[in-house]
Specification:
Length: about 180
């Protein structure tokens, strides 16, 4: 049996595959043990969604669990406006649109399609700047779709012993750097 991939792991894996391993080590422990200010602020932005208080409209899905059989992904969506066919992934602050952000949207998009919803538009939303960033659908950006599928293949075939540190600056900013032997290089 193949384990499913959490949607949030798509971005994490790109940052550093070992971060997923260390996150699992903490298990159900309080995230206050390892989160820094950025992660804590990001969680605060999602509270209204997680508590389903972003909108009282029945046509707005918020924080629902989703699963994509095609790619074996599961997680939660942020906001899906059924009437507008618009899926939104909220971030505390967006200064750069990373591939991982887009891949999280793709995973949510495919999950909603499998659930029978019509999704015509996807976007990222920066809470700090109140700015929306429209993202092309996967079939409109074949290069990104291929990168998305390649990432899932990399995750499914990943060997933790194959990691070689290539960016010590990234490691030094990682919330798990005190646990990782890669930051000692």
């Amino acid at each position: 049996m193949t384990d499913y991939i959490l949607i949030s792991y798509l971005n994490d894996f790109i940052f550093c595959p070992k971060s997923i391993y260390f996150h699992k080590l903490y298990g159900l422990k309080s995230s206050y043990l390892y989160n820094d200010t950025f992660q804590s602020e990001g969680k605060a932005v999602h509270e209204t969604i997680d508590n389903k208080k972003y909108s009282s409209k029945k046509n707005v899905l918020q924080g629902i669990d989703v699963y994509c059989e095609k790619y074996n992904l599961c997680g939660k969506i942020d906001i899906f406006d059924i009437d507008k066919c618009l899926l939104t992934e909220r971030k505390k602050h967006i200064s750069t649109i990373y591939d991982g952000y887009i891949f999280q949207l793709y995973a949510q998009y495919y999950s909603l399609l499998e659930m029978g919803y019509k999704v015509n538009k996807i976007q990222l939303y920066s809470f700090d700047t109140n700015k929306a960033y429209p993202i092309l659908l996967p079939d409109e950006d074949i290069n990104m779709k291929n990168k998305f599928e390649n990432l899932i293949e990399q995750i499914n075939n990943f060997d933790i012993n194959s990691i070689i540190n290539t960016n010590i600056n990234k490691c030094m900013r990682c919330i798990y750097n005190n646990l990782c032997d890669q930051t000692q290089c």
